[in-house]
Automatic annotation (TrEMBL):
Lineage: Bacteria, Pseudomonadati, Bacteroidota, Flavobacteriia, Flavobacteriales
InterPro entries in UniProt: CheY-like_superfamily, LytR-like, LytTR_DNA-bd_dom, Sig_transdc_resp-reg_receiver
Coiled coil: none
Organism: Cellulophaga lytica (strain ATCC 23178 / DSM 7489 / JCM 8516 / NBRC 14961 / NCIMB 1423 / VKM B-1433 / Cy l20)
Keyword Ribonucleoprotein applies: no
Molecular function in Gene Ontology: DNA binding; phosphorelay response regulator activity
UniProt name for this protein: Two component transcriptional regulator, LytTR family
């Protein structure tokens, strides 16, 4: 991990600071930025200092850990550290990712850090792209948009490709290889050097051909294994 996780400890007990700082310093990807002894100090510090992870005690004078979480507009991810478990359920409403009961043992500390990393990985993973619902293809001098769900299969036709749909057949200025790159692999598969088929339109399959709307389409030996695997899992 190249970027260190910036941590703070907020706890009124020096003994808790001793244990947590020791655990944090044992892990090179964690950086202990500051140690605070009450909720007011934490509130002031967090106003001007971005933090990745806060180890927060619940039972503190003046401002409790729960009151601090309720007050902070931008809460860092938080692991609660306390001798009491009665606030566990309420705490998860404020984005708390784990709950460590004192005395805190090192293996349990590491498990809480793993929860933090898992949550970070999920939040920072790229949003899945919405799959296209249509494709624009050149037919003569015009560009025509065809719904992917309407396509049954395509067939090489010299320097063109015939695109068979539910309603009609188009002769498109494109090669089968170029067209294959534009069609989502989750919906279409090459069955032969000359054919691409819509997976969900396959009605039956034989050893050498497949059937789409009573049309027999050959299965090339190069593509047979992939076709069989796809049919098995769809």
């Amino acid at each position: 991990m190249t970027t260190k996780i910036k941590c703070i400890i907020v706890d009124d007990e020096p003994a808790a600071h001793y244990v947590l700082s020791d655990y944090i310093n044992k892990n090179p990807f964690l950086s202990l930025e500051h140690q605070l002894y009450n909720g007011l100090e934490a509130m002031q510090y967090l106003t001007n200092n971005p933090v990745d992870l806060m180890f927060l005690d619940i039972d503190m004078p003046e401002v409790t850990g729960m009151e601090l979480l309720k007050t902070l507009p931008n809460k860092p991810k938080t692991i609660l550290t306390t001798a009491y478990s009665e606030f566990a359920l309420e705490s998860y409403e404020y984005g708390v990712i784990d709950y460590l009961l004192k005395p805190i043992f090192y293996p349990r500390f590491l498990k809480a850090i793993a929860h933090f990393e898992d949550k970070n990985a999920i939040e920072n993973s790229p949003e899945p792209k919405e799959e296209a619902k249509d494709i624009s293809l050149k037919i003569g001098s015009d560009m025509v948009t065809i719904l992917l769900d309407d396509i049954l299969f395509t067939q090489s036709y010299g320097n063109y490709v015939k695109v068979y749909t539910m309603k009609r057949t188009y002769v498109v200025t494109i090669t089968t290889t170029e067209l294959e790159k534009q069609l989502p692999s989750s919906l279409f598969v090459r069955s032969h050097k000359s054919y691409i088929v819509a997976i969900n339109k396959i009605k039956t399959i034989d050893k050498d051909c497949l059937i789409i709307q009573q049309k027999s389409i050959p299965i090339g030996i190069t593509y047979k294994r992939e076709i069989m695997e796809i049919i098995k899992f769809n």
